[in-house]
């Protein structure tokens, strides 16, 4: 059994405590200490950096080949393939990748990061397949909602099949895109849907995704996605809420630029109060993810309000000194929380 350095220290302290209290013999303590090893953190770091580099190079290669050179279109026109044929071909390729990923998963259960990197190929091929299928079968006036919905369903189904959190994140992002495009379509091309502008609509969507983690956690086949759904939904909710605190429920950008930011003070106050309430709850019930994200957005909220109301009235040196102080305070608190956790 392998532990990282921090986990090994905790286990070692527990064994030492049991030995000191005579709950276990010295022989058993020695046997327990020999039953685990400390993972090489440097090797892990190198592996992670190498995988990040592989992902980056893969995405750059995909962009260079597909987006810049448009080689698929060149080959399609040269060989006279219809868009439906290209959709069928990439569906087959995506199916092959899913099959290989499933077989790979059953053979190597521990390499989660490399599995997720491999799943990027599935995300890209599914996206291309859906793009060509919808271009070939749908004859709509530029409505991107259906392709995004199909992508969300495809990614979600494959994520459950492969138990992939990365594919599930892709499904949630695609669903967010569908929500924005579909509400735009339902509103007849306007910027309001049921009286809500884009930031307010996305705030509602983020809240729905965040709340859905409670339901997902109770479904056995989807329980492994509860934490990532919670985190992604919370991030979407906070980003949309922060945007809402700036623009309010205003749908005309040109008219918004003519208004004073103080006209939206109640949206800013509402977002601040919500963040404060969430922070209180997070500290009270030791919700670490909620605490950390809310702290980041609370600071972002403070700086946003500064730029809105006080940028022209405050010395820049004082502002950046306060900024440095606040980051120092956050770093200090983080060290204290880490010390308490380790203790």
Features:
single chain; 343 residues; mainly alpha; 3 domains; two-stranded parallel sheet; 14 helices; DUF2157 domain-containing protein
Description:
This is DUF2157 domain-containing protein. Keywords: Membrane, Transmembrane, Transmembrane helix. The mean pLDDT is 77. The chain is flat and about 75 Å long. It is mostly helical and 343 residues long. A two-stranded parallel sheet has the order 1-2. The chain has 3 domains: 39 residues; 144 residues, no CATH class; 122 residues, no CATH class. Helix 5 packs antiparallel against helix 6. It contains 14 helices and 2 strands. Helix content is 78%, strand content 1%.
Q: What is this structure, in a nutshell?
A:
The chain has 14 helices and 2 strands, in the order βααβαααααααααααα.
CA gyration radius, whole angstroms: 25 Å
Question: What gross morphology would you assign?
Answer: flat
Tally of strands: 2
Largest sheet, in brief, is: 2 strands, parallel
SSE pattern? EHHEHHHHHHHHHHHH
Estimated share of beta-strand residues: under 5%
Level of helix content?
Answer: over 70%
pLDDT below 50 for ≥5 consecutive residues: which ranges? none
Q: Order of strands across the widest beta sheet?
A: 1-2
| Number of distinct helices | 14
Name the structural class: mainly alpha
Mean pLDDT: 77
Q: Kindly, what is the distance between the CA atoms of the first and last residues, rounded to a whole number of angstroms? A: 23 Å
Q: Domains counted in the coordinates: how many?
A: 3
Topology (SSEs and partners):
Blueprint: E1 2-3, H1 5-20, H2 26-33, E2 37-38, H3 41-68, H4 71-79, H5 83-107, H6 112-137, H7 145-162, H8 165-186, H9 198-216, H10 226-247, H11 253-258, H12 265-284, H13 288-309, H14 316-342
Parallel strand pairs: 1-2
Organism: Dyadobacter beijingensis
Protein name: DUF2157 domain-containing protein
Transmembrane segments: 46-67, 79-101, 113-132, 144-162, 167-186, 198-216, 228-248, 264-283, 313-331
């Amino acid at each position: 059994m392998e532990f990282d350095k921090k986990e090994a220290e905790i286990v070692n302290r527990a064994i030492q405590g049991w030995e000191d209290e005579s709950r276990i013999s010295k022989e058993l303590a020695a046997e327990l200490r020999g039953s685990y090893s400390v993972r090489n953190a440097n090797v892990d770091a190198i592996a992670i950096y190498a995988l990040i580099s592989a992902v980056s190079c893969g995405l750059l290669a995909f962009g260079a080949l597909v987006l810049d050179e448009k080689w698929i279109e060149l080959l399609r026109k040269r060989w006279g393939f219809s868009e439906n044929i290209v959709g069928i071909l990439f569906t087959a390729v995506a199916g092959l990748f899913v099959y290989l990923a499933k077989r790979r998963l059953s053979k190597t259960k521990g390499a989660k990061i490399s599995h997720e990197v491999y799943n990027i190929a599935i995300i890209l091929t599914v996206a291309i397949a859906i793009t060509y299928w919808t271009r070939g079968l749908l004859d709509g006036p530029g409505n991107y909602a259906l392709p995004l919905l199909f992508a969300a369903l495809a990614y979600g189904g494959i994520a459950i099949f492969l138990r992939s959190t990365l594919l599930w994140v892709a499904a949630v992002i695609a669903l967010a895109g569908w929500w924005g495009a579909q509400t735009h379509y339902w509103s007849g091309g306007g910027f309001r849907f049921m009286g809500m502008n884009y930031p307010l609509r996305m705030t509602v969507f983020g809240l729905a995704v965040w709340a859905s983690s409670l339901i997902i956690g109770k479904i056995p086949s989807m329980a492994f996605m509860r934490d990532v759904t919670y985190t992604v939904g919370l991030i979407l909710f906070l980003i949309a809420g922060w945007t809402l605190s700036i623009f309010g429920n205003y749908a005309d950008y040109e008219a918004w630029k003519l208004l004073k930011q103080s006209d939206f003070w109640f949206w800013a106050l509402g977002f601040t109060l919500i963040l404060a309430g969430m922070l209180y709850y997070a500290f009270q019930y030791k919700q670490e993810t909620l605490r950390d994200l809310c702290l980041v957005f609370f600071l972002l909220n403070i700086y946003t309000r500064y730029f809105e109301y006080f940028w022209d009235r405050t010395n820049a040196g004082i502002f950046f000194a306060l900024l440095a102080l606040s980051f120092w305070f956050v770093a200090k608190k983080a060290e204290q929380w880490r010390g308490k956790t380790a203790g």
